[in-house]
Amino acid sequence: AQSVTQLGSHVSVSEGALVLLRCNYSSSVPPYLFWYVQYPNQGLQLLLKYTTGATLVKGINGFEAEFKKSETSFHLTKPSAHMSDAAEYFCAVSDLTGAQKLVFGQGTRLTINP
Amino acid sequence: NAGVTQTPKFQVLKTGQSMTLQCAQDMNHEYMSWYRQDPGMGLRLIHYSVGAGITDQGEVPNGYNVSRSTTEDFPLRLLSAAPSQTSVYFCASSYGLGNNEQFFGPGTRLTVL
Fold this sequence. Notes:
The complex is a heterodimer of chains A (114) and B (113).
Chain A: E1 3-7, E2 10-14, E3 19-26, E4 32-38, E5 44-50, E6 56-58, E7 64-68, E8 73-78, E9 87-94, E10 102-104, E11 108-113
Chain B: E1 4-7, E2 10-13, E3 19-25, E4 31-37, E5 43-51, E6 54-57, E7 64-66, E8 76-78, E9 87-94, E10 103-104, E11 108-112
Parallel strand pairs in B: 2-11
Antiparallel strand pairs in B: 1-3, 3-8, 4-5, 4-9, 5-6, 7-8, 9-10, 9-11
């Protein structure tokens, strides 16, 4: 069965600093990989996704993630944090069966310090 | 387009009561699903549907029923509410399969006393 582990339930960075949110997955075959963001009292919004092709994926709001098959990782980064980035971030995987059943990590709450 | 809509936004039930959480989408998406979100556990799939008339169980289906009579609607029924079903429920939809983005509704916050 697939699983997703997000290292660190809470991450705090200063405004302007690098954001790094870690995600490792367990899958017998390379899955589809997603990062979603959830702002307070809202639903989830897609930040970026990896399906096939280029392993460095760029998303919205300046975020990017790199798929590393050898490390089974899909870490999310942003060079310079902004106050508006404060939210909860979820890494998710989808298998290749065609039914698009997402398996989510536990989530990482990102706090931005002024 | 309204996207994915969910009603109600908040609900309080007593143990043993039943209710239906409504979900609708106006994007003509084939795939719809229900997740529950609990602190420290991310989102877990309850049930999903790959088209009208077709539903299947996800990771945590016990205590919930679904049906999909139209492309637009995918209601989630709690047959006999239990405190363990206190959670935030999200409906999502997507077009096609596998690698497509799922669009999420705003959620329903359910408390079972």
